[in-house]
């Protein structure tokens, strides 16, 4: 483990994780809105927002899958040191982190069981940028309609059609985060 | 207990992390009860341990917390839970619905319409709406999986056959986004319409039963009914005797042993704001003061800093923020006044 | 003008002050020390440790003192404290075969290797109030105080301890039948069920290295595994588990239980320390273990064998341990190919969902909290129903 792995965590975990959780709750409860996450400095290529989500939501009980460029030594060490989360293959992941392309095919991820739909993966999808434009979103959490710069449409529409099964997504870019629960319906704008 | 002995908001970080994951899954599947490893809390099961755990997992030091029981800020359990968070989280507390960022409630939804940026946390005793029809968890889980809600409709219809109407007046079951049948906690059915399309996030915590569920904002929630017996949100056929409100849920108060009684708003903040705005009812009372209280200086666990007793409040305090939603009756769908 | 009842906060403070005064009682009488409770009310301390799932006699004694002797309240205090403690790791499974025994009896054999050790039991006392205790006098100590070896037989002066060995069982004699101590022994004492197992007379338990679920860290999931059931039972309310066990004896899921062995004593708790690469002894706890030998009712696939029930509880808590093993056995109906006859003790969900007395007492007692909003809605409903019924009746007349 490199000394860098020990850096970049929360300085005041109880308060910083509380703020981070509230922002992620707002993001997932109001799909299409952009929220701010700060307080973690993970090794490249992970964004600040994704790093904050990891520190806030992962622990020794949540297997994590790192996809593509995110599956690198410094990041593995950083997550292991700060959260104790076991690093696993996509199929076993409770959280999966990576660029959209690296996460493919997303059909590998847990979608929950018919009697326990909560036992599904949460994807943290790293994006070059996030804007409130793009495909049209409707459903719980959205007053009339919202828009979000999703990296694709078909995969999310397929996932949404599985409701109440399906995975849930956070999109991260820099310090920004947006949420897309499985309950959101997606159409081309 | 002093604040210094425990983590911020009492729970340890790993416990909060686990509860937060459950809340997010609850948001993703509205109305579905997510199992969570509820902890023993320093108050008994039944006193709101589920709500307290959800609130503890959500609180930040910047929050302003309101706690109500039966709609009132000054009921003993509400006072007790408010003090708990003042002590362990050092957060600001308020009695004003519009000022609160997190509201923990037992048995009521505030009359004042909630707004974006607010979270309403319900204390839930029995989260399973099908429990009284089928006591087995293994069975009710299967019924939710298969959307087998016929038993619930049969039960409601038996009511109609026997009483001419649905004889469930509180904890009235609802269906969320056309999928899960959900227990709204023991709120009077008068409050059911407020569940739907709320601007606020609604979180439900059942500690003893180890379940968390959620309604994201703007979620479609329908009270179960029949075409020929539509759902009606009913209340007593009176106006509030203190503030004159015609559209708020009323408590019946026995005033003597000769059958004398009066009706007052169950939502004490709503009633106070209306009186502050000059409304008076049959037995109208004068205005009282604001209830906002600064966070206590932790870790001193001195008594009385909550100022929850209106008799102790400073009459010279600034007027309460009673604006939004007042008297608008924003949720006033199909309110039926009970004929006596 | 009407003024609603107010002052919740002042009422709570006043109630707390009153409670504190009541807890202390007459200040003219010396206060109980925690050490006195720990030493002289040890069985209450054991119960609180067992149901609170925290082995700490001092804290359990403190909880009893603070709870004014209300043991369920004391269990609650301990649970609420325990839940805030960080987890450093898991111990290795304790080895009850290496137990330093203070009591060990078998009902299924007259004598057996390791001997019968009566130990400090109420079993053969006559339940006559001892007014000497009330006079604050002490009866002459008939027994050596623990942890010295248990003596033979009740009431008599201790005999020199003999150390029967595994391979040299004490020959049956009028002196070493039931009720006569075999003396303490530092050597491992084999389990009675091991003898039966050697002959294939009792059903074997399949060993497993799987990590058992932790009821205090994961929500209960049904159907439950046996480790989860045993965990719920050992934490469960003694009265509840006792009544369930009793109901099986009276025919509600009868399993024909014999106490194959009941043993009480101390065992070492060891923990693997990864940095060291070996396990270290982190302390010693007293536990009660009960293994029942139960009749097998027969199946088409297996030759007849005895079956087992198991109980293991913190401290000297033998009523609880025996009860636990009966209920454990009753819950194993499916695994052992028996019929579900609808008995409460066979019903896993019923047993597991109602065994925790902190949950039970909380939910039971919460009905004294205000419910006037819901009651108001019921009042309105019943008035409306009555008004409509009366209107219809009058219309009919």
UniProtKB/TrEMBL annotation, chain A:
GO molecular function annotations of the record: lyase activity
Naturally occurring in which organism (per UniProt): Pseudotabrizicola alkalilacus
Transmembrane segments: none
GO BP annotations listed: organic phosphonate metabolic process
Keywords on record: Lyase
Pfam name, any one: PhnH
InterPro entries tied to this protein: PhnH-like_sp, Phosphonate_metab_PhnH
Top-level taxon of origin: Bacteria
Name used for this protein in its record: Phosphonate C-P lyase system protein PhnH
From TrEMBL, chain B:
EC number: 4.7.1.1
Pfam families: PhnJ
Region (Disordered): 282-340
InterPro entries in UniProt: PhnJ
Keyword Transmembrane: no
Entry keywords, A to Z: 4Fe-4S, Iron, Iron-sulfur, Lyase, Metal-binding, S-adenosyl-L-methionine
Group of enzyme by EC: lyase
Listed Basic and acidic residues bias regions: 331-340
Catalytic reaction annotation: alpha-D-ribose 1-methylphosphonate 5-phosphate + AH2 + S-adenosyl-L-methionine = alpha-D-ribose 1,2-cyclic phosphate 5-phosphate + methane + 5'-deoxyadenosine + L-methionine + A + H(+)
One function term, GO molecular function aspect: 4 iron, 4 sulfur cluster binding
BP-aspect Gene Ontology terms: organic phosphonate catabolic process
Family according to the record: Belongs to the PhnJ family.
Described purpose of this protein according to its UniProt entry: Catalyzes the breakage of the C-P bond in alpha-D-ribose 1-methylphosphonate 5-phosphate (PRPn) forming alpha-D-ribose.
Name under which the protein is recorded: Alpha-D-ribose 1-methylphosphonate 5-phosphate C-P lyase
Organism, as annotated: Pseudotabrizicola alkalilacus
UniProtKB/TrEMBL annotation, chain C:
Region (Disordered): 139-161
Keywords, ordered alphabetically: Lyase
GO terms (BP aspect): organic phosphonate metabolic process
Cross-referenced Pfam families: PhnI
A molecular function (GO) term: lyase activity
Database matches in InterPro entries: PhnI (IPR008773)
Record-given protein name: Carbon-phosphorus lyase complex subunit PhnI
Native organism: Pseudotabrizicola alkalilacus
């Amino acid at each position: 483990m490199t000394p860098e792995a020990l850096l970049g965590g929360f300085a005041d975990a109880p308060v910083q994780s509380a703020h981070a959780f509230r922002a992620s709750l707002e993001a997932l409860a109001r799909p299409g809105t952009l929220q701010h996450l700060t307080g973690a400095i993970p090794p490249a290529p992970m964004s600040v927002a994704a790093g904050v989500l990891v520190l806030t939501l992962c622990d020794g009980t949540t297997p994590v899958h790192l996809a593509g460029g995110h599956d690198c030594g410094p990041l593995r060490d950083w997550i292991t040191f700060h959260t104790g989360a076991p690093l696993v293959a996509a199929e076993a992941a409770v959280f999966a982190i990576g660029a959209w392309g690296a996460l493919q095919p997303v059909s590998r991820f847990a979608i929950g069981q018919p009697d326990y739909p909560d036992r599904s993966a949460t994807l943290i999808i790293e994006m070059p940028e996030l804007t409130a434009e793009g495909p049209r979103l409707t459903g719980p959490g959205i007053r009339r309609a919202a828009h979000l710069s999703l990296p694709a449409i078909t995969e999310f529409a397929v996932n949404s059609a599985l409701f109440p099964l399906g995975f849930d997504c956070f999109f991260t870019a820099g310090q920004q985060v947006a949420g897309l629960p499985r309950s959101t319906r997606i159409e081309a704008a | 207990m002093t604040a210094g002995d425990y983590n911020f908001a009492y729970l340890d970080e790993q416990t909060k992390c686990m509860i937060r994951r459950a809340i997010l899954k609850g948001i993703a599947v509205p109305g579905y009860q997510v199992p969570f490893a509820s902890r023993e809390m320093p108050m008994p099961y039944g006193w709101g341990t589920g709500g307290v755990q959800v609130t503890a997992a959500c609180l930040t030091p910047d929050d302003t917390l309101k706690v109500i029981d039966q709609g009132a800020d000054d009921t003993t359990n509400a006072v007790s839970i408010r003090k708990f968070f003042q002590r362990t989280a050092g957060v600001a507390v308020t009695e004003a619905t519009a000022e609160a960022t997190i509201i923990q409630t037992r048995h009521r939804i505030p009359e004042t319409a909630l707004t974006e940026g607010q979270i309403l946390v319900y204390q839930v005793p029995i989260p399973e709406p099908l429990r009284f029809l089928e006591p087995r968890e293994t069975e009710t889980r299967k019924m939710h999986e298969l959307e087998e809600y016929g038993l619930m409709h049969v039960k409601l219809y038996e009511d109609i056959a026997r009483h001419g109407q649905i004889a469930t007046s509180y904890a009235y079951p609802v269906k969320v986004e056309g999928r899960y049948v959900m227990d709204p906690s023991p709120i009077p059915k008068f409050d059911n319409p407020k569940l739907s399309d709320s601007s606020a996030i609604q979180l439900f915590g059942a500690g003893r039963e180890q379940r968390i569920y959620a309604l994201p904002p703007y979620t479609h929630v329908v009270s179960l009914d029949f075409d020929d017996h539509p759902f009606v949100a009913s209340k007593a056929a009176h106006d509030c005797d203190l503030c004159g409100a015609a559209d708020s849920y009323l408590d019946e108060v026995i005033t003597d042993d000769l059958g004398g009684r009066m009706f007052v708003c169950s939502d004490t903040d709503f009633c106070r704001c209306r009186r502050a705005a000059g409304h008076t009812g049959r037995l109208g009372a004068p205005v009282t003061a604001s209830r906002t209280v600064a966070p206590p200086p932790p870790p001193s666990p001195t008594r009385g800093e909550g100022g929850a007793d209106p008799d102790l409040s400073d009459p010279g305090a600034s007027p309460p923020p009673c604006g939004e939603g007042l008297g608008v009756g924003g949720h006033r769908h199909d309110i039926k006044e009970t004929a006596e | 003008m009407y003024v609603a009842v107010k002052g919740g906060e002042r009422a709570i403070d006043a109630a707390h002050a009153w409670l504190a005064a009541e807890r202390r009682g007459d200040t003219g009488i010396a206060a109980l020390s925690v050490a006195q409770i720990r030493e002289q009310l040890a069985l209450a301390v054991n119960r609180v440790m067992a149901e609170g799932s925290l082995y700490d006699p001092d804290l359990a004694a403190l909880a009893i003192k603070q709870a004014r002797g209300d043991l369920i309240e004391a269990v609650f205090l301990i649970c609420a404290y325990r839940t805030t403690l960080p987890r450093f790791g898991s111990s290795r499974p304790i080895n009850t075969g290496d137990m330093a025994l203070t009591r060990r009896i078998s009902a299924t054999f007259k004598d057996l290797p390791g001997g019968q050790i009566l130990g400090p039991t109420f079993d053969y006392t006559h339940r006559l109030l001892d007014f000497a205790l009330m006079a604050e006098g002490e009866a002459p100590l008939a027994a050596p105080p623990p942890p010295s070896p248990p003596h033979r037989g009740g009431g008599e002066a201790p005999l020199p301890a003999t150390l029967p060995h595994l391979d040299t069982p004490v020959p049956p004699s009028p002196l070493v039948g039931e009720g006569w101590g075999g003396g303490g022994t530092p050597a491992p004492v084999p389990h009675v069920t091991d003898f039966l197992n050697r002959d294939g007379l009792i059903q074997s338990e399949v060993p497993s290295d799987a990590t058992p679920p932790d009821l205090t860290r994961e929500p209960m999931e049904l159907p439950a595994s046996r480790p989860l059931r045993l965990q719920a039972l050992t934490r469960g309310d003694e009265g509840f588990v006792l009544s369930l066990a009793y109901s099986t004896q009276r025919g509600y899921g009868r399993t024909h239980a014999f106490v194959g062995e009941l043993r009480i004593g101390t065992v070492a708790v060891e923990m693997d320390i990864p940095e060291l690469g070996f396990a270290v002894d982190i302390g010693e706890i007293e536990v009660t273990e009960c293994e029942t030998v139960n009749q097998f009712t027969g199946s088409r696939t297996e030759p007849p064998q005895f079956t087992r029930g198991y109980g293991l509880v913190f401290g000297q808590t033998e009523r609880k341990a025996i009860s636990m093993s009966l209920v454990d056995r009753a819950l194993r109906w499916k695994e052992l190919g028996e019929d579900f006859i609808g008995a409460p003790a066979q019903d896993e969900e019923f047993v597991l969902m109602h065994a925790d007395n902190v949950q039970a007492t909380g939910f039971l007692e919460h009905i004294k909290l205000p419910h006037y909003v819901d009651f108001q809605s019921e009042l309105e409903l019943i008035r409306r129903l009555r008004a409509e019924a009366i209107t219809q009746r009058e219309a009919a007349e």
